[in-house]
Amino acid sequence: MPDRKFLVSPGPHLWRGQSTSKIMYIVVLALMFPTAAGVYFFGYRALSVIAVSVAAAVLTEYGVKKLRKRAFVMDGSAVITGLLLALILPPTIPLWMAAVGSVFSIAIVKEAFGGLGHNIFNPALGGRAFMTASFAMEMTTWVLPMGFAADAVTSATPLSERFIWEYKDLFLGNTGGSIGETSALLILIGGLLLLALGIINWRIPVAYIGTVALLTLALGQDAIFHILAGGLMLGAFFMATDYVTSPITARGRIIFGIGAGILTVVIRRFGGLPEGVCFSILLMNAITPLIDRYVKVRPYGLVKKVRSEG
Amino acid sequence: MSIRLKSKSTSYGVKVPESKLTAGSPIEPIPLPERVIIPLHQNIGAPCEAVAKRGDKVLTGQKIGDSERFVNAPIHATISGEITGTTMVINPPTAQLVTALVITSDGKDEWVEPEAPGELETLSTKEILDRIRAAGLVGLGGAAFPTHVKLSPPKDKKIDTVILNGCECEPYITSDHRVMLEYGEKVLSGLNIIKKVLSPDNIYIAIEDNKEDAIDHMEELITVMGFKEDFKIIPLTTKYPMGAEKTLIGTILNREVPIGGLPLDVGVVVHNVSTAKAIHDAIFEGKPFVERVVTVTGAVKNPKNLLVRLGTPLRTLIEYCGGIDGKASEVILGGPMMGISQPDLDFPVTKGTSCVLVKESSPIREQDCISCGRCLEACPMHLMPTVLAKYAKAGRYNDCKEAYIDDCFECGACAYTCPANIPIVQYIKVAKSELIKRAANK
Fold first, then answer.
1. Which of the two ends of chain A, N or C, has the fewest CB atoms closer than 10 A to its terminal CB?
2. Ranges of residues in chain B whose predicted pLDDT is under 50
3. Boundaries of CATH 3.40.50.11540 in chain B?
4. Of the given ranges (A226-235, A298-307, B320-329), which has the lowest mean pLDDT?
5. pLDDT at residue B361, rounded to an integer
6. Which residues of chain A lie closer than 8 angstroms to B362, CB-CB?
């Protein structure tokens, strides 16, 4: 055998082959369920908001990376941000506003903090908060599902007090609301897919939804209504579980879910806004670094040096 | 009570592809090498001093290196012939340069007079330990810790449990598996010697459930050899790093070895199955440790399990297996998870070598951590690997220390599972060596 030199590299010499982009595109796939519901119920309007938001997000990511002289990787994270933002917007939002919100999400909430992995706030939720402050009227105008019909009939959002509803419609999504938030069923399918594939962990959604259920029961309200209406399901499965902006430890994730649940109920019950999911997750995003600092894992063998019996 | 106990598992660790290409290949002795290179430091602990010099004629099994220190195992000539020189080699586990003696074969393989075979009833514990030390035995699972030291717990430490480790959780490696199948009697006989030395209350043989044939075989042998009352088999879920000592103790006994402590601090001693076989050889056959089973696998023409004299260069092993297949670019001493890549094929098989893996390497691009938490779920030491890597990257070595970096044994489960391809273990190694340097400068 001829004398030759071999490559020397650090171990391990084997990888699962999982990658950030694979994970992101699986999330995109799971998001197709609520997206389909949104398009089914809100027709062309929904479709165009989604298209504009996603396109704006990807282009902004590309532009910012060029400005920062960093490599642009089509890792799917910008697609998720654009898609998620569209799903939490009213179907009637003017397209240019959706574009502005999407640009803000990527350029300010994500890239200004250093890009994927470094942002403190969930980009889509940050974008939505920005739009709520900037376009108050358009962000609170709701229509009843009209499918691909042309006429839109304005309606109250389920969480406002004037609303008349049935559980079945809330569960299937046949109700007024943001594009991707109305169908609890399809959100659940997407969420369960992520759980089954090990992409997300059960702790945050269970702690979050469970806390909302218990608190609303304690306040003498309809817990099922509070779970199905508004953005809780989408928020709990797709936004509160955002790796980057939620705690890394198992216990931290439980704390995060409970905290978001309490805040959601407090805002819904006592706050000035009908919905509290967006701001409660953003507030928990803000204290995530604190949770990660103080909630640690107990290392194996961190015990007093005592002999076991025997 | 039945011999086979209920299967156990752990929630930590990772599922890795097994790639046990050679699980069905019987152990083949390879022809005697013309030349062997024998490093004088092959164990954890003190190195040996040469007790033979250039020009000396040596017999197979003749001692050529020894030390006064307790934590050390002597080194023997593995072929008969003449010491024709010395060379320097890099000892993979420590990355230190060590002296090695080169022996050129006379082709006769003449052995030293073996020690008279012992009888277990008549040998005292001290005689057993002396023979084990004289045979140069070290832990063969990879750590290469001198066996007689592991069998000499301080008097105030009562050992209540012995675990015989037949997990072999690294992908590709099958040497322990074949040893259990082909030398099962010797393994159990060696375990019986361990039992005499430590007199524990419980003795478990831990085997991963991907080696069903080995579990069945050992179960049968235990009955045939009359160890039914003494030895129990615990099948374990196939998961990496199940065979790591601390993981094993946690999984089987639900005990945690204290940080900085040893298994004997919780009343446990763990030995590898091949070590038990070598203990049998040392006591009952009077044979010093001069050969071992090495799996040569991956991108070689014919992957095999070989019985190899220590000191045989990797080149000889790979040539015997038909050479490198395809465009493989990496040669790894050990398994793919914890093995160390070698720059060339000159390095010899040492006591701790269980595998030579030839692999095509796939360059990976490191990305930013997305805090997914997969490494935390994988870490058998329940550490926060990505946090350690972040601290190490930022030069915050004291923070690494406070985050228990010393508890990491570099199994690589974290890096294996990382979607951002962060070479976490590499960062941790850098931080550890930096911390050692700082401690030395104080």
1. N
2. none
3. 125-284
4. A298-307
5. 80
6. 15
Give domain B125-284's CATH superfamily.
NADH-ubiquinone oxidoreductase 51kDa subunit (3.40.50.11540)
Q: Given an 8 Å threshold on Cβ–Cβ distance, is B257 in contact with A301? A: yes
SS (H, E, C) chain A: CCCCCCCCCCCCCCCCCCCHHHHHHHHHHHHHHHHHHHHHHHHHHHHHHHHHHHHHHHHHHHHHHHHCCCCCCCCCHHHHHHHHHHHCCCCCCCHHHHHHHHHHHHHHHHHHHCCCCCCCCCHHHHHHHHHHHHCCCHHHCEECCCCCCCCCCEECCCCCCCCCCCHHHHHHCCCCCCCCCCCHHHHHHHHHHHHHCCCCCCHHHHHHHHHHHHHHHHCCCCHHHHHHCCCHHHHHHHHCCCCCCCCCCHHHHHHHHHHHHHHHHHHHHHCCCCCCHHHHHHHHHHHHHHHHHHCCCCCCCCCCCCCCCC
Interface test with A, best of B264, B327, B416, B432 (most A CBs within 10 A): B416
In tens, the pLDDT along B269-322 reads 999 999 999 999 999 988 899 999 999 999 999 999 999 999 999 999 999 999
Residues on chain A touching B423 (C-beta within 8 angstroms): 10
For residue A1, what pLDDT is reported? 56
The pLDDT, as a whole number, for residue A172 is 87
Distance (Å, rounded) from C-alpha A9 to C-alpha B341? Answer: 6
Quote the CA–CA distance of B355 and B292 in Å, as a whole number: 11
Q: Does the pLDDT value for residue A310 go beyond 60?
A: no
Residues of B in contact with A12 (CB under 8 A): 336-338, 412, 415-416, 425
Give the DSSP H/E element, type plus range, for residue B248: helix B245-253
Check CB contact of A2 with chain B, cutoff 8 Å.
Answer: no
The pLDDT assigned to A151 comes to 64
Work out the mean pLDDT of chain B and round it to a whole number: 94
Taking residues A30-45, what's their average pLDDT?
Answer: 95
Least trusted range by pLDDT, from A80-84, A162-166, B95-99, B336-340? A162-166
Per residue in A129-142, pLDDT (tens digit) is: 999 999 999 998 88
**Candidates 1.10.3430, 2.60.40, 1.10.10, 1.10.1140; correct CATH number of A20-294?**
1.10.3430
Q: Cβ B421–A249 below 8 Å, yes or no?
A: no
B266 at interface of A, judged by CB pairs closer than 8 A: yes
What's the pLDDT at A2?
58
Q: Are B381 and A300 a contacting pair at CB < 8 A?
A: yes
What is the pLDDT, as a whole number, of residue B76?
A: 97
Residue A132 · residue A278 · CB < 8 Å: yes
Beta-strand pair B161-166/B268-272? parallel
Residues linked to residue B240 through DSSP beta bridges, in sequence order: B14
Task: Please report the pLDDT score of residue A309 as a whole number.
Answer: 41
CA B201 – CA B86 distance, rounded (Å): 47
Tokens at residue A98, please? 């959706």
**Spans of all domains in chain A:** 20-294
